[in-house]
Amino acid sequence: xxxxxxxxxxxxxxxxxxxxxxxxxxxxxxxxxxxQQTPGQGLQFLFEYFSExxxxxxxxxxxxxxxxxxxxxxxxxVSTLELGDSAxxxxxxxxxxxxxxxxxGQGTRLTVV
Amino acid sequence: xxxxxxxxQALSIQEGENATMNCSYKTSINNLQWYRxxxxxxxxxxxxxxxxxxxxxxxxxxxxLDTSKKSSSLLITASRAADTASYFCxxxxxxxxxxxxxGQGTRLTINP
Lengths: 113, 112
Prior knowledge:
heterodimer, A: mainly beta, four-stranded antiparallel beta sheet, globular
């Protein structure tokens, strides 16, 4: 079966712009989580969506938001980009959430200049 | 704050040797998971060990769990160059809802 697909793979944006990243989970998976990975902070949890509802949220400012559609596809949006938002953004899907095996996409490398 | 902390932060060994990485965590867990990440790519799930299990094997991987010490170890036997990657342990933290939290990882380098 197809894995987790994240688009785009690479993105360069200017400070102040906004960006939308997309994640298509494995078919049948209802949980989608997003992580930000940077060399300094490691893997930081952003949020989790389950059946179109945000089930959990990490400690990120309101500029970071997300949503999930009825087909379980998820998007995350970052508004008013800052240089510090440059990171690898990873999406993970699982059957039921945190206590089950997570399958990750290849990530979106966002560079803010 | 991090739930899991890996040790060492970096490990360099010769091909064929065994590699051991350790993870310590802070709170009670239902299970602990290990993941591998090749440079700049997504994470790959390696193994999940439940809190009532003490040891689990998968191919060349052996994971142990000591809930009394709140620690786990990942052993890779007969290492290969392709094992070069970062390895992360992950545990579930309950903060209003459950979320999977990762440690900072161990960077493993296998020298040919």
